[in-house]
Amino acid sequence: MIRLGLTGGIGSGKTTVARIFESLGIPVYYADQRGRWLSDYAPEVILNIRAVFGDRVYREDGALDRKYLAEKVFTDRSLLEKLNGIIHPQVRRDYREWVCGQQEAPFTLMETAILFESGFDTEVQQVIVVTTPEELRIARTMQRDHADEVSVRARIQAQMPEQERLAKADYVLYADDCHLLIPQILELYRKLTDTFSG
Questions:
Q1: N or C terminus: which one in the chain shows less Cβ crowding within 10 Å?
Q2: Taking Cα atoms as reference points, which of 118, 110, 131 lies closest to residue 159?
Q3: For residues 69 and 83, is the Cβ–Cβ distance under 8 A?
Q4: Closest CA to 139 of 13, 14, 31
Q5: Furthest-apart CA pair in the chain: how many Å?
Q6: Measured between alpha carbons, how far is 144 from 1 in angstroms, rounded to an integer?
Q7: Reading across the β-sheet that carries 171-174, which strands appear in turn?
Q8: Whole-model pTM?
Q9: Cα–Cα distance list, 76 to 22, 108, 169, 193 (Å)
Q10: Separation between Cα atoms, residue 88 and residue 119, nearest integer Å
Q11: What does the pLDDT average to over 67-85?
Q12: Coarse DSSP helix, strand, coil percentages of the chain, rounded to the nearest 5 percent
């Protein structure tokens, strides 16, 4: 069973791609979602986040105040590195356990916006990058997250530049106004299934 990474910048459409692969029967590990879950429910992660950011970072109901946290980490790179140092090792461990239960699949996908930045590319054997023009990514993210343009651009700046990401890709999917996404995914699915089955 081959492990593939699926990544792309914020607002690129990578989660849509992941859902389509999932509908085709391919197991998908949503690393960003699991990281959020761990920051809400894993006692060790919660304890370490509180130690760095203070009790204020969790609301009275026990939920992580993501807006407050984002304001801190996206304006202070050292705090972002500390947060990643807490969450990423836990996600890595969680992913490895998950992979062990997927041995019947021809391949699996780890979906995350920060595959390379987090070092998770060392957990996979090949990488699919979803690419989208930056202005379209900004518009999508503003609509999806009800965010302003300045904050979205700050999040993009915190990620790897698009050309660097593309240079590391084994496969590229184009999620823009000039390409049909589903036919690209089906073609890649057939290619990967033929290559990695058996």
A1: C
A2: 118
A3: yes
A4: 13
A5: 52
A6: 34
A7: 28-30, 107-111, 2-7, 126-131, 171-174
A8: 0.89
A9: 36, 34, 29, 43
A10: 9
A11: 89
A12: 60, 15, 30
